[in-house]
Amino acid sequence: MLFWIVAALLTLLACLAILVPMVRVKAHASADSDHDLAVYQDQLAELERDVGRGVIGETEAEQARAEIGRRILRIAGEGRGTGSSKSSRTGRTIATLAILAVPLASWGIYAVTGSPELPGQPLQERLTANPAENSIEELVARAEGHLTANPEDGRGWDVLAPIYYRMGRYNDSVVAYRNAIRLQGSSVTRELGLGEAIAANAGGTITVEAQAALERALVLEPQNPQAQFLLATAMAQEGKSAEASQAWRSMLAGLPTNSPWRGAVEQSLARLGEQPAIPGPSAEDVEAADLMSDKDRAQMIENMVAGLDQRLRDNPQDAEGWQRLVQSYVVLGRLDDARDALQRGLNALGRPSQPAASLETFAAERGVTLNGQAE
């Protein structure tokens, strides 16, 4: 009830703050007009006395009467305009009604759509309620209160760290991850989270601290694609395009064909102005065909190899693709085709060049050379 009394008083004061100046303007205008009229009347009386004593001539007296008369008429005209103006009174009436209508309409709308009977809900009471009824902000506040009282609860920091990150509170996320690692020990998930949080807190730049965390994650899980990708991104940010390209290409070669990271890697390579390696059948792919019937196996292998061969004709600068094609023909026993693929690959990559030399060495290790029969 006290709230409604205070609200009503504040509303009344706000309305008076607008209405009182409107009334005062008219009152002040009327008072000023009456004062001026009295002064001019006194001036006329004084003029007549001066004429009677002979102090002023009749001609000068007539001029003075005319001037005072004009001033009196002007004041009288202003008084009539102010006092009788229906538009002025109508405007003040409308303004007064509008000012009074605002709080009345507000109270009426709240009475219909609001919940005036709802009791107050202090924050502390909400935090001690059933957690299922809390919002995410209230749950975070609840966890923060718990960790303030129990700062060595590593489990609590571990739970709160990724929540901070999703809320955009990156600095708090960094602190939480560091506490979780200190109390719970290092893990791939925690180190990756710490690296991401540090980078996000730095505006997306993968700093030295972030790289250190990602490298620790990679030590714990050498083939972790997230750590590999972010470390390659760090190289690109530092201007080490060649190193970043090599890291992404190596990562791409080890990813499964259905990995969601393939798209991200290929986009990153495209931003560097390079084409990603063309996927093709490996020796394992061909050997896995042994589980199929002879006809199906032969058809599958032929389609895979033919597809790779065609893609290399469209994109002949893929050194890894030429190695896969040579390998595929060797596994199939098609050594003439393997030598032809070697020749085309060397021509495409250009001699002398490091990619061409690598392809020639790769083929020689599998018994394929250009100067003789396969060993």
TrEMBL record:
Acetylation in keyword set: no
Sorted UniProt keywords: Cytochrome c-type biogenesis, Repeat, TPR repeat
Residue ranges, annotated region (Disordered): 349-375
Coiled coil: none
InterPro entries: C-type_cytochrome_biogenesis, Cyt_c_biogenesis_CcmI, TPR-like_helical_dom_sf, TPR_CcmH_CycH, TPR_rpt
Principal cellular location given in the protein's record: other
Subcellular location: Cell envelope
Domain Cytochrome c-type biogenesis protein H TPR: 130-260
The protein's name: C-type cytochrome biogenesis protein CcmI
Species whose genome carries this gene: Neoaquamicrobium sediminum
